[in-house]
Amino acid sequence: MSLSLMCISHSPLMGFNEPAEGVREEVDALFDRARAFVSEVDPTLVVTFGPDHYNGFFYDLMPPFAICYAAHGAGDYDTSADEFVVPEHIAAGLAQYAVDHGIDMTISRGAELDHGAVQIPETVLGGITKYPTVPVFVNGVAEPFVPISRIRLMGQVLGDYLATLDERVLLIGSGGLSHDPPVPRWAEATEAQRAFLLEGRHPTPEARAARQAKTINTGLKFAAGEADIQELNPEWDNAFLDVCESGDVTAFDAYTATQMTLDAGHSSHEVRCWVAACAAMRSAGPYVTRERYYRAIPEWIAGFGAFFATTA
Ligand SMILES: O=C(O)CCc1cccc(O)c1O
Ligand SMILES: [Fe+2]
């Protein structure tokens, strides 16, 4: 019946590191507008596109994307470990429609979803149990990456199905923009890191705390100009936001994974979640921008952006 769109960067460091003066207030105000937007569109169904960072999805089996029929939070960085309230018939309807329309969809009947999929819904919806929600996992860290055109088509096909439902659907995309946090990569990983990347679910509390402390500390060092990670790229981020605003979602197809890594860092692939969400939104027709926000926030290791839209 209706689709609306809300894409926002996540960063688990938001709750740990203080950004430059005035930035916290600016982002708080953005989240106030996000909550007001949710109230306005009054969703009856939420569909989230979120990545994972080797908390729920590992190299023992790494799909490019997956519809979750059931999922719960991993609880990393103090995010919710609640069970999502998933309307299974809608998840199943989406998956069936996707496979019927040329998308090789993976499903999960019990996904664990980390801050990448939980932080933004939790923050803007007041928890992950408040609205019936179908979480869609989109791989944003683990090579190989399928072409962006496949992500765009996946979003478009899911949007086609959602537009047939008698629901007010809020699409949430979470991730990106440019950033390069210290997530291990298989090609350069040590044996211990490879063991983790292969099957590192449910770390000990000590291992989790050590991992998080390292990332939090990297954010502080990055802001001081002392971290050995790629710079944020505000120009790239704003060009990406331009494509979101344009509504010409096929223009996303020009992005290649290799160039994205070079230009915008190893975690820029999280923007796949935005691509899928924008494409789903666009399948319902032209849309109008309701919010565009951008700030490079090194303390959070985030080219931090937002883009909201409603049908024109
Ligand atoms: O926990 C991790 O491995 C990465 C954490 C992380 C840090 C900054 C921005 C992000 O988007 C992000 O996910
Ligand atoms: Fe992330």
From TrEMBL:
Signal peptide, first to last residue: none
Domain Extradiol ring-cleavage dioxygenase class III enzyme subunit B, first and last residues per copy: 5-305
Alphabetical list of Pfam families matching this protein: LigB
Gene Ontology molecular function: any one: ferrous iron binding
Pathway: Aromatic compound metabolism; 3-phenylpropanoate degradation
Cofactor(s) needed by this chain: Fe(2+)
Class of enzymatic activity (EC top level): oxidoreductase
Gene3D superfamilies: LigB-like (3.40.830.10)
Biological role: Catalyzes the non-heme iron(II)-dependent oxidative cleavage of 2,3-dihydroxyphenylpropionic acid and 2,3-dihydroxicinnamic acid into 2-hydroxy-6-ketononadienedioate and 2-hydroxy-6-ketononatrienedioate, respectively.
Superkingdom to which the source organism belongs: Bacteria
Reactions this protein catalyses: (2E)-3-(2,3-dihydroxyphenyl)prop-2-enoate + O2 = (2Z,4E,7E)-2-hydroxy-6-oxonona-2,4,7-trienedioate + H(+); 3-(2,3-dihydroxyphenyl)propanoate + O2 = (2Z,4E)-2-hydroxy-6-oxonona-2,4-dienedioate + H(+)
Annotated catalytic residues: 115 (proton donor), 179 (proton acceptor)
Quaternary structure (record): Homotetramer.
Gene Ontology BP term (one): 3-phenylpropionate catabolic process
NCBIfam families: PRK13370.1-4 (NF009910)
Similarity section: Belongs to the LigB/MhpB extradiol dioxygenase family.
Name of the featured protein: 2,3-dihydroxyphenylpropionate/2,3-dihydroxicinnamic acid 1,2-dioxygenase
Keyword entries, A-Z: Aromatic hydrocarbons catabolism, Dioxygenase, Iron, Oxidoreductase
Organism in which the protein naturally occurs: Raineyella antarctica
Enzyme Commission code(s) on record: 1.13.11.16
